[in-house]
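Q: Convert this sequence to structure tokens.
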Amino acid sequence: MGNRRPLLLAAGLLGAGIATALAPATAEELPARIDWGERYTVSSPIAGVVREIAVRAGDRVEAEQPLFTLDTRRLQADARAAEAKRERLRLELTEADREVERAEELYDRTLIAVRELELARIERSMAAARLARAEAQLQKIRVDIGDSRIEAPAAGRMLSVTVTVGEAVSPALAPPVLATLGTTDPMRAVTTVDAATAAGLEPGQPARVGIDGERFSGTVGVIGWEPEDIGFGTGYRVDIHFSPPDSLRLRAGQSAEVRLGSGE
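A:
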């Protein structure tokens, strides 16, 4: 009985040590910088003239919301011409089908040689190929007309608008950057930690982000594998994802504090 108390004390100390080792990597507040969840470059896949701009820098937009419209008058004219060509080629294919039917009937009656029958069939195949090319060209024009309506790739805030109404854009010369967009749900608080702290972190672990006295729940996102200096001294980058209210109107580069773990 006399030896049980030291053994229990030792076991308690050992258990406390294990619990400490399994606790969150750090509970101290770390300096951080706010950044957009994702940054998108909005461009145009087709050449054209900007007819309408529906947003301004700073606007909050939803995914697939229209941002820009290009002038489609030339495309619409091309589409009408392609539709007329398609109808003409459909008539040609119908006539080629009739010619094959007549040739087969004459061949069955031994009134024409097999060569003439084969020529009729070749002409029908060529007419079908011409019609298929015309339909593909019409489909491409329709896709280009759809691409003239440029939409937001994700919900977020417009960071900049770099074109004006009447400006011509052409992806053949260079990818035309029309605007940039940053997503705000979630946003990121970016900090750096030492190697030991980084080794104890896993994506999805809870964290807290502090901004001007307000605190927001978040989760650990990307954990860097190479040291870098992003303004807080050299360390391993850690991204904390969090969802601030729209009313806060955060901007990239604002200062923040991060507390890893769920504690306040």
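Helices lie at 4-22, 73-108, 114-147, 195-199.
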